[in-house]
Amino acid sequence: EIEYEVMRDADDTCIAVCSMENVDPLGVHTGDSIVVAPVQTLPDPVHQRLRSAALAIIRALGVEGGCNVQFALSPDAAEYAVIEVNPRVSRSSALASKATGYPIARVAAQIAIGRRLADIPNVVTGTTVAAFEPALDYVVVKLPRFPFDKFPTADRSLGSQMKATGEVMAIDRTFGAALNKALRGLEQAGAGPLAEDPSWAPALAALSASAALAGPAAQPEPDRAALRSFVAPSDSRLWRVLALLRRGVGEDRLHDATGIAPWFLAELGRNVALEAEVRACGARLADPADAEAMVLLATAKRAGFGDRDLAALVGVTAEQVRGARLAVGLVPGYAMVDTCAAEFAAETPYFYATYAAAGSEPEAPAVERPAALVIGSGPVRIGQGIEFDYCAVHAADTLRRAGWSAVMINSNPETVSTDFDASSRLYFEPLDVESVRSVIDAETARGETCLPAVVAFGGQTPLNLAGPLVGGGVALLGSDLVAIEAAEERTRFAALLDRLGVPQPEGGMAESVEEALTLAERIGYPVIVRPSFVIGGLAIDFAYSPDDLVRHLAAAAIVDPDRPVRIDRYLEGVEVDVDAVSDGEAVLIPGLLEHVEL
Predict the structure, then answer these.
(1) How far, rounded to the nearest angstrom, does the alpha carbon of residue 384 sit from its chain's CA centroid?
(2) Could you report the per-residue pLDDT of 82-133, keeping only the tens digit for each?
């Protein structure tokens, strides 16, 4: 499936803003598929044929503004058909806009009031006009973010009905590197580049054994059927394919089973091969005195692997990998998203990190001080929606109105915070500790104090980063780490309520299933069970009996000494929210809200 975002004005001037292709073959909704821009697997004559068809369609329809055209293309690229046309700004338009740096909605709005593409300035470059087609010297990968961690018993198969609640976008110089960065940006347990579900072990063993026995010969139909079933479209298909590649299942067999283009499978295989090299290197990868290991470390960083993933591969800590990197001066460079592949000088404050530019001169100096980093909310999911992006945008706007530079970091193409003009400078990066610290380092000029961060406006994601950032010497603006942990960590909060004499449900912490059962028996059923730190209600449930409690803890896999659970008596009654704002001394209560449902 191939998509084109095209624009047309009243003078019949037409341009193709962006081309995108789905890694998943037809049958999987675009919103649930991995999407890559620009197209990677089409020969240029085929690309030009589809582009010309898209432009002919927008002309024939008479659309003035933006239009999204989706094509189905046969595997041999000999035939194509139009799947649908959206004569409006769509979800794909937001992705195309952020992927190219071309402000589709802004330009379409100006066309709507009669302006022409040739007369509309390109606000990104500051020198060209909107009739200039974007050119990309990088690769963009979009990954869907599914809600199955919230609904583990739901049907996880994918088809024409969209199931993703959000998405994450990553930019780098190669597909493999952008994919690894996007995987880091999903902010989901079991979603990193190395993730494998333990329940797959029997199937993986059987499939890898059958592949080894068959050798170059064609596999028996039962084996082919088993492989197709294992890699059928689902939210975990990408990780299943990677797991099979690690076990030697051939790319040709995976192409036959999935329909994924051989080029993409070869790129996945390249990443898997690099994983094996890193694993074989072992703890040497964190030794800055080992020149050979440092060359491999640089290669792995160019491929988009995070310090945490590399540390897991070689059995050291992420901090040790980071220390080795810094010791040899291996830090990312930041390239500009300029819509013109650096053909013209650009004024855009929109950047992405790439180790392909490590050691290069910065394309822009650090922002003017005073300045602060605003950490966005990442991909939309249940419990962490677009309202947090609204807060982050207003935080950046308030900083700028107060004369501060606002540096924004986020990974979500659907949001206003990732508009290049919503902040003084935008970094499109995963919201993990490594990426955030690297941006802070890049924006802290020699001799300046470390760029401070604002973590209160992006929901749970920046709050989870607060501890590591403070540990790395980053100052927090607003609530400090002590206040955040006192509110977030259930044991501390319960102790605070006891000191204040404020009543709370009877409860306690459990570090094992046995402790949980004993505690619930003492409290009395029903009980409410939740992790020590919660994200949007994830893994919170009620238990009405010991069997309920055991089943919930087993399904959620949330109880162990490192991750205790809080068990409280479940109260029947009216629930009331009280919102408060404090400047450290005075407290304002703007509203009290009563829940209709219990």
Answers:
(1) 13
(2) 999 999 888 888 999 999 989 899 999 999 999 999 999 888 777 788 998 8
